Amino acid sequence: MTALDDIRQAREIIAGRVHRTPLVHSRLLGERTGLRLFFKAENLQKTGSFKPRGVFNKLHALSGEEKQRGLITVSAGNHAQALAYAAAAEGLQCVVVMPAHASPTKAAASRSYGAEVIMGGTMHEAFDKMQELREARGLTLVHPYDDAAVIAGQGTVGLEILEDLPELEAVVVPIGGGGLISGIAAAIRPARPTARIIGVEPHGAPTMATARERNTPTRLDSLDTIADGLTAPVAGALTFAAVQRLVDEVVLVSDEEIVDAVTATLQYTKLLAEPAGAAGLAALLSGRVRLPAGTRTVVVLSGGNVDAAVLKKLL
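The structure corresponding to this sequence follows.
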């Protein structure tokens, strides 16, 4: 289980390599939800999502030999961009495997940072392809979520939230594979033991919700959602354990509710969230999450990387 000291150490390691993103208050969306509502704007992070936090912390933990073998990962986009960016910063070779449905913008960004991008198949097939290439080329895996160093890096989001809002009473976090919510929960729970920690997934990719229902990580047969950043096919062993221990509930939202949240975020906060990044607000606006009136609540906008053509359709 990721410890608070691990997260504090991660913050020192990644300092100067990532942004300290702002916590933005929204009065109007607060009135709509009946809450004192804030947004942690990780859409303004380097590469457009929270992902570089965990990647830089993981690279610090690797040996020189592991780095020189070259790096590999699998991702629908945001982790791919983050690893490509960090690898370029350290002069390392990097391969990212992405499913066919991955955002062309995210794939292009990964290539622009110097990564070798391999696309094709479903998310399940992308994971299998990554493992095949990893073994064939002797590459070092930087897992998108189920890794202690990655989770600790993502936990720095939680430290910043607490610094900006010490009286936090609830935090709502999108879940893909669970690395972000695991780190945030590990950072927040010791300081705010009564705070509600809530995860959100799309109906079309209920990865963590299914794991909780069956009490074990379970590979989903199909994934179908507009929120491409929330399409991990199976929860990690580490992330599942953290969610079971530290997270109060995991709720599901529809794609339609996510689209409404993307529009509301842009309209009322002037922040652009990709569908995955807006899932937390979708849970509040739709009533999937119910909190007492006036609860000091933070929604994590986990990313803002959305193709212009997709955004046009959404709006």
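The longest strand covers residues 196-202.
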